[in-house]
UniProtKB/TrEMBL annotation:
The gene is guaD. It comes from Cereibacter changlensis JA139. This is Guanine deaminase. Its cofactor is Zn(2+). The keyword RNA-binding does not apply. One of its GO terms (biological process) is guanine catabolic process. It comes from the Bacteria.
Length: 434
């Protein structure tokens, strides 16, 4: 069954970090034809209405239709501890994160938080996430069950840790391999779900565990592998002490078979020249988590890397301080300013959609509006609050009209969300803006 959505439409024909704003396409009176869960056509409203006169129409007026946001690095189990005060990475993990993750031994708690998490992210316009679970297999099952019930394209894996974590939050090299393999075989490629091999980071995995997960990845090369890299200076010193034989942090992964295309490294702030060169040569993805990097005090990501590597954008819930990819774009802009890069709104929007999708090797399916792509869409109200509305009155083009929403918008700007073409049923935690 087809449906014609009318509004302003934004999409990408290229990479704005390479081609500048010319990579973006904007139809100010545009239309998207959705059919059988996919985008069937996109273009000027007049042409699509004439070509598809039978299709029912939903007219969003001056609102902006975009691909839904793709959040490329999150920890859904940290939903309830978001915005916890006063710690840096290692203390933050020990004080807030690990006690909360312990609770996911209970499948009912895992299901409650997974459902709460997806209600929150959908109300913020995020249609795909790539998440860490906890060490508990039931936390992966809860995530995929909640994603599947909503029809989402979703990515996650069991977080593996066999040292430097409390009793009750440690597995072993063998059990991490066995549990990950069983979960991968059960969930990977089931509908729109994808299993991601997930060693947490080198401080909490022995070389034996990293090697076991490297072996699993070799056996399942079409999976992604995600972990953390060079987030804080204290962490890097710790890694050097734990792995004295390694050339650098990246080497702790590289020597265990955990560096190649499909490797996704969160944060990646404090990199050496060798690491940057090797990451680019290997075709790895880096995920910029700007609200987290300022909130936990980690540092400023170098967006110059976006021309040589796949770079995605993420909230890093709950080290990040927001579920909103609009807030995350705003933080990426501010971090860019501090590093001397004024990111163009087209670059910010691309990072939150097609850039993140490309980091997850899903750019031909999600993160853009083009025929054949999955119809996961967000509709943005460009005047969602009085403060934003007054700032857009003199806008001369779409970027001037959009930038106040990027900088000041939140879930009130999310007018509608479509998953595989269908409107998302609003739950109690959503706040439709009418
Ligand atoms: N490094 C290892 N685990 C984590 C985590 O849960 N959050 C963040 N921000 N960094 C990490
Ligand atoms: Zn993380």
């Amino acid at each position: 069954m087809a449906e014609l959505l009318l509004g302003q439409v934004i999409s990408f024909a290229g990479d704005p970090f390479v081609e500048g704003e010319a990579a973006a396409r904007h139809e100010s009176h545009g239309a998207v034809l959705v059919k059988d869960g996919r985008i069937a056509d996109v273009g000027p409203a007049g042409r699509l209405r004439a070509a598809h006169p039978q299709a029912p129409v939903t007219d969003y007026g001056r609102a902006l239709i975009s691909a839904g946001f793709v959040d490329a690095h999150v920890h859904y189990p940290q939903t309830a501890i978001i915005a916890s005060w006063g710690k840096r990475l290692i203390d933050w993990l020990n004080s807030y994160t690990f006690p909360e993750e312990m609770r996911f031994a209970d499948p009912a708690y895992a299901a409650e938080i997974a459902n709460r998490y997806f209600d929150l992210t959908l109300s913020h316009g995020t249609t795909t996430v790539c998440s860490y679970a906890t060490i508990h297999p039931c936390s992966v099952e809860a995530f995929f069950t909640a994603a599947e019930a909503r029809g989402l394209r979703a990515y996650a894996g069991k977080t593996c840790m066999d040292r430097n974590a409390p009793e009750g939050l440690r597995d072993t090299a063998q059990s991490a391999y066995d549990d990950s393999k069983r979960l991968l075989e059960a969930w990977h490629g089931r509908g729109r779900l994808n299993y991601v091999i997930t060693p947490r980071f080198s401080p909490t995995s022995t070389p034996e565990q990293l090697a076991a997960l490297g072996a699993l990845w070799r056996e399942h090369p079409d999976c992604l592998m995600q972990t953390h890299l060079s987030e804080q200076l204290d962490e890097i010193d710790w890694v050097q002490g734990l792995h004295p034989q390694s050339r650098d942090y990246l080497d702790t992964y590289e020597t265990q078979g955990l560096l190649r295309e499909g490797a996704i490294y969160g944060h990646a702030i404090h990199l050496t020249k060798r690491e940057k060169d090797r990451l680019a040569e290997a075709g790895a993805s880096l995920i910029h988590c700007p609200t987290s990097n300022t909130f936990i005090g980690s540092g400023l990501f170098d967006m110059g890397l976006a021309t040589s590597l796949r770079v995605g954008l993420a909230t890093d819930t709950g080290g990040g301080s927001s579920f909103s990819m609009l807030h995350t774009m705003a933080a990426a802009y501010e971090v860019g300013q501090l590093r001397g890069h004024a990111l163009h709104p087209a670059q910010l929007w691309w990072l939150a959609t097609q850039g993140s999708a490309r980091a997850l090797h899903a750019e031909s399916r999600i993160g853009n509006i083009a025929p054949g792509m999955e119809a996961d869409l967000v509709v943005i109200d460009l005047a969602s609050t009085p403060a934003i509305e007054q700032a857009t009155r003199r806008a001369g083009d779409i970027w001037q009209a959009l930038f106040p929403t990027i900088m000041m918008g939140d879930d009130r700007a999310i007018r509608d969300v479509r998953i595989a073409g269908k409107p998302v049923a609003q739950s109690s935690s959503s706040q439709p803006s009418g």
